[in-house]
Amino acid sequence: MKNIVLIGFMGVGKGSIARAMVKHTSMMALDTDDIIESIENRSIKAIFATDGEEYFRNLERKIARWLKKKVTGTIISTGGGFFKVPALKKVGTIVLLNAPFDTIYERILAHTDSAKKLKKRPLFKDIDKARELYNERLSQYLKVADIVIDVSDKSVDAIAKEIIEKGKKR
Ligand code: S3P
User: Fold this and answer.
1) Could you tell which of 123, 134, 137, 141 is best to mutate to test the pocket of ligand 1, judged by most ligand atoms within 8 Å of the CB?
2) Nearest CA to ligand 1 atom 16
3) Where are the domains of the chain?
4) Regarding beta strands 3-7 and 92-98, do their DSSP bridges make them parallel or antiparallel, or are they unpaired?
5) Which of 3, 118, 163, 164 is deepest in the core (most CB within 10 A)?
């Protein structure tokens, strides 16, 4: 059974949607950022600050190779830049979760711990740079996606069910 790989921009809700999918299926979930923080025993923010982005991207590539070889039938939520790993398409069915940049940003701001959510993401420190990154990545996300889901104005549960239904048809 193939993995379901959730990709998309920072703050779009990949982790929450993966957790909702676990509720509605017999599948379990993994998160690539969580794996990195766990094997490194430090936060992503600390990894970026001490060793830089390329060090982090190397870990993402290593995880992708491991997922490809060892993991099946699992929901995999990923960091916003994970989709660039060369092994991506061999890891599973790629599901892009997308919403306009402003919708994503407004949703983060509406959150009770929005400051924390922004602080832990080194590439979301500067909103103009984050918007630029979104604009640069959107066509790249679309290119690798097998399934595209617009997550604006939908509940996490509705999105989870939509992915499960679309996934079955593949
Ligand atoms: C990144 C997104 C982050 C995290 C890292 C880099 C990116 O994950 O992997 O800060 O390049 O978009 P989230 O998408 O979960 O915020």
Assistant:
1) 123
2) 10
3) 4-168
4) parallel
5) 163
80 CB near ligand 1 (under 6 Å): yes
> Right CATH number for 4-168 from 3.40.50.300, 3.40.630.30, 3.40.630.10, 3.30.479.10?
3.40.50.300
130 near 124, Cβ under 8 Å?
Answer: yes
123 lines ligand 1 (CB under 6 A): yes
* pLDDT tops 80 at residue 170: no
In this prediction, residue 169 carries a pLDDT of 77
Ligand 1 pocket, 88 CB below 6 A? no
DSSP string, 80-136: TTGGGSTTHHHHEEEEEEE--HHHHHHHHHHSTTHHHHHHT-GGGSSHHHHHHHHHH
Tell me the per-residue pLDDT of 95-148, one tens digit each, with 9 for 90 and over: 999 999 999 999 999 999 999 999 999 999 999 999 999 999 999 999 999 999
Q: For the whole model, what pTM was predicted?
A: 0.97
CB 79 near ligand 1, within 6 Å: yes
